[in-house]
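Record Group-specific protein, 85 aa.
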Amino acid sequence: MNSFEKITLYILSFLLYPIGIITWIISLFSNDLEKKKVGRICLYISLVSFVLFLILGIATFLMTATFNVDLNHSESIQYQINDVE
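=>
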């Protein structure tokens, strides 16, 4: 497995964490130690990615729920329309 394939798998594992888990499962059945190592690293990257996305999702939810933030900014547009009339 060349370095380009490894880096591609690592990046895809971070961006789309199920790919890292699938890579790890596939590498379990391989006899090649290098593929097993790459699969294990993809699993670790996927777990870190999942935790980061989970933390960001919870933080976004808490910020919008706690501070009553409207992510669509529809209220501010409505105020601008009402002020013009």
